[in-house]
Amino acid sequence: MRGVNSVLRELVKRSGGLVTRAAVTQVVPEWALEHACRGGELVRVLPEVFVAAHLVDSRPGIPVLNQLDPGVAPLAALAWARGCATLSHVSALAAWGLHAPTANEPLHLSAPINAGLRTRPGVVVHRRRGLVIEPPHVVVRRGLTVTRLEQTIVDSWPILPSAERRAPVIRAVNDWLTTPERLAVALSSEPKLTDRAALRILLTRLGEGCRSPLEIWGHEHVFTGPTMPEFRRQVPVRLGRRTVYLDMYAERERVNIELDGSTTHGDPRQREADLRRDALLATVGILVVRFAHRRLVNEADDVRRETLAILATRRDLWPPVIGGS
Length: 325
Known about the structure:
325 residues; alpha+beta; Endonuclease, Chain A; 3 domains; 3-stranded antiparallel beta sheet; 19% strand
């Protein structure tokens, strides 16, 4: 008895605290597994899946899977699926590093339409026609099988609270994990997605070069209209050995509009770096105009009037140009 228990404990230890019935019964009798569960050493979290008791944060009334260490719960769900499903939706978004799971958030799996899995406490199973649990439909991220990023972002859109939907999309594009064009292709296959129009507009703004919620807000409320020039966004300019990117560049007037977010505005080091960058741009004739988050949001009409006045003055200084700067 003691020898059997020590073998089981070693197996549990080597596997990071997570074991399946199939794996256990290859090395010890099945009664050893039942004995460990009755003795409180192992806890059954899903059919045929068990974890070491110290990994369970016991909270009454909450599915056992949601009481697990966040690093173990996705592994348990995939072990239960036995290769017939993949992490998807916000669970895959977390594996991509674009979402922090909240307390009691269920795990999401996507499975082929004919898979024999069903939703259980703590696990939501989505059936997807045409899904195959192998590349290119799925990839491995942080050791976990997940849906491709573009599908993950589209699937997660209606599940996330409305105030949190934009951030993962913007970050994924800014971090060069995907592109607005690839996301638009994934969105095209989901015609009934909740709040689909808002995601489509966001992808349009990102495709136009907006790279933050503030830039999107400015584009929609301040820097567009019949009296505004057509700004070019994220324009590369070579300054010696470095290349800088201009947020919103009025090419004829040689004016670059920069929108300073609320977090960077109070950072002295960032402010100093911005001033050095602005001085370098001045050496090639580009005027940098900065608007703080507070002014852009609370004084939109004033910002618009100031921008138009600056652009009008610069037109008298610079003739029309053809091509880049």
